[in-house]
Amino acid sequence: MEVRCLKCGQVNRVPPLASGKKAVCGKCKSPLIAGGHGVATLTDAGFDRSIAQGNWVVDFWAAWCGPCRMIAPIIEELGEERDDVRFGKLNVDEFPGIAARFNARSIPLLVLFKDGAERGRVVGAVPRGHIEAAIRQHLG
After folding, report:
1. Quick check: is 65 catalytic?
2. Alpha-carbon span 66 to 40, nearest angstrom
3. Is 68 marked active-site?
4. Per-residue model confidence as pLDDT tens digits over 50-63
């Protein structure tokens, strides 16, 4: 799995960790998993495998999208704080096949998954409370 460092932005590949082990950023040595799981950078190669188990919120986004950049810090915060839900980001420009498969026509788009099955969606740059309410409603 790939996890973006909240401090320096470096994307790090994190293998499954043994009990008690902690991942740190290869560039700045900051902890990658503190409280929550962080935010995984998802690709088409491992997408289905990543979301297959547990609760996931996947942010379909693009670098040029202003509203996507507006909610990015909220997604990063939630990824660090919550351990009941995993958060991932999928760049729709880099992986248009996955974006098309999930009919991601408007971004930012948050798709909520439980054990690989889609449970709900949140479209647009919405406040943190709206995202948390959707998590409670669809994944609670």
Report:
1. yes
2. 21
3. yes
4. 898 889 999 999 99
